[in-house]
Amino acid sequence: MEQVMNHYLVFAENQVLETERLILRPLSLADAEDMYEYASDEMTTEFVFPTHQTLQETKEIIASVFMADPFGKFAIEDKETHKMIGTIDLRVNMKAGTAEIGYTLNRHYWGKGLMPEAAKMLLMLGFDQLKLIRIIAVHDLKNPKSGRVMEKIGMTKESTVYEARKIHGVVSDIVTYGITHSQWQAHKA
C-alpha cells in the first residue's frame, strides 16, 4: 500500500510542471474550446483517437477522462499565450515499476520542439520522482514524426506490432519505443 500511496503523493505534489516554454497542469472545462480546436481536426486525431464531433463531446471527455482521474494527466499550456495546445499523460504501473507516455498536440504547434520538451518533464517525473525502471511510448507506423519525438527524448525503437488496433475503423500497426532508468541517466548526462 505504501508504494501505491507514494505515487499518488508524487502526482499530488507535482500537479503543475514548468519547462522553458510550457506549463503542464491539470485540465478543466475551461480548456474545452482549446481542446476542441485540435480534437475536432482530423489531421491531428488521425493516429490517436476518434475525432470529436461537438464541443459538448469534448467537455464530456475532459470531465470523464481527465478530471475524473487526473493524476498523471496534464494539459500542455503555451506559457506565452496561455493557450492549451495539447495533452500529455504518464500512465503508471507501480507494481511493475513502468509507465507509458501518451500525447496529442494541436497541429499548429507541430515542428517546434514542444512535445519533446513536455515529454522530458514526464520522464524526469517518472524516473527521478517515481523511481520507475522503464517508460515506453507507442505510435502508429504511419506517423513516424511521433517516433522522432520519442527519439529526441532518448527512447529507442523496440518493436513493431502489426494489426495492433483500429483507429477510425482502420486496422493499424504500432511501433513501441522505450527507455530504461539507466538509459535516462546516460541521456541526461
Automatic annotation (TrEMBL):
User: What terms describe the molecular function in GO for this protein?
Assistant: acyltransferase activity, transferring groups other than amino-acyl groups
Q: Which InterPro entries match?
A: Acyl_CoA_acyltransferase (IPR016181), GNAT_dom (IPR000182), N-acetyltransferase (IPR051531)
- Any Pfam family from its record, for instance, is Acetyltransf_3
Boundaries of every N-acetyltransferase domain copy: 22-178
Cited Gene3D superfamilies: 3.40.630.30
Q: Which domain of life is it from?
A: Bacteria
Return the protein name.
N-acetyltransferase domain-containing protein
**Provenance organism:** Enterococcus saccharolyticus subsp. saccharolyticus ATCC 43076
